[in-house]
Amino acid sequence: MLASLNLGCGQDDWGDIRVDFDFATQTGLSSKLNVRADAHALPFRDKAFASCRCWHVLEHVQNPVQVLNEIRRVSSTADVRFPVDEGYKMQMLIGLVSLEWATFKNAYLTFRRRVHRWIIRPFGTFCLSDRYLVYPTWAIKGRKSRFLRALVRRYYFEWKVEL
Question: How far is 119 from 106, CA to CA, in rounded Å?
Answer without folding.
Answer: 18
